[in-house]
Amino acid sequence: MNYKLKIGFFALFFSISLYGKSYVLDNQNQILDKTADFIEVLANEVYEKTGVGLYIVALEDLEGMNLQEKELLYKKDLKNPYILLFFVKKEKKIDIITTEDSAKMFDKKEVYWDYIVPLIPNSDKELTQQNISAFLLNGFMDIADRIAQFHKVELKHSFSTTNKGVELTTKMILYLMLFILLIVFAFVSLRKSK
């Protein structure tokens, strides 16, 4: 009887430690619950398929610490390789922290400027939980996609933020429409002048 009880406790502890791993290390009401849940699922898939830990911290403020001290609190227990997307609302700080190994997998500047910054609202009033969730999730998903591409695996819980073919086609259509409008404008202007 005592033996079965020990096995039960061991199984419970093992399942909690296995499935209880959190990739949202801290969320001070900055990210929507649904977004945080999706991040957990996506980060777990990234870890299972690549061995890279992809984490996020979203804070209201630094609570009297400087940025490096606060980041160190979260980094100290993470195992290499990992990536930590770190956001502090009051200080308006976004940092993508990588280890030496994970830094080789993608360009942090591209993710920051192409997938996070364009979605950041201009006004502090617009820095709502929904908007914060949107730009952090967009950056998080792009990082996940880049890690997957580096490891040549496919993620079923992500939709690619890097649809280069769609982007190129859209740009070409817009340029073609602009060119046609210029021709029409020139044609109408020439007819009026005669």
Write the SSE topology.
Elements: H1 2-19, E1 24-27, H2 33-50, E2 53-59, H3 67-75, E3 82-88, E4 93-98, H4 100-103, H5 108-116, H6 129-151, H7 164-193
Parallel strand pairs: 1-2, 2-3
Antiparallel strand pairs: 3-4
Helix pairs in contact: 2-6, 5-6
Organism: Helicobacter apodemus
Protein name: TPM domain-containing protein
Transmembrane segments: 172-190
Describe what you observe in this structure:
Keywords: Membrane, Transmembrane, Transmembrane helix. The chain crosses the membrane at residues 172-190. It comes from Helicobacter apodemus. The chain has two domains: 19-161, Diaminopimelate Epimerase, Chain A, domain 1 (Roll); 163-194. A hairpin with a 4-residue loop joins strand 3 and strand 4. Helix 2 (33-50) packs parallel to helix 6 and helix 5 (108-116) runs antiparallel to helix 6 (129-151). It has helices at 2-19, 33-50, 67-75, 100-103, 108-116, 129-151, 164-193, and strands at residues 24-27, 53-59, 82-88, 93-98. It is α/β, with parallel strands linked by helices and 194 residues long. A four-stranded mixed β-sheet has the order 1-2-3-4, sandwiched between helices. The protein contains seven helices and four strands. 23% of the residues are buried.
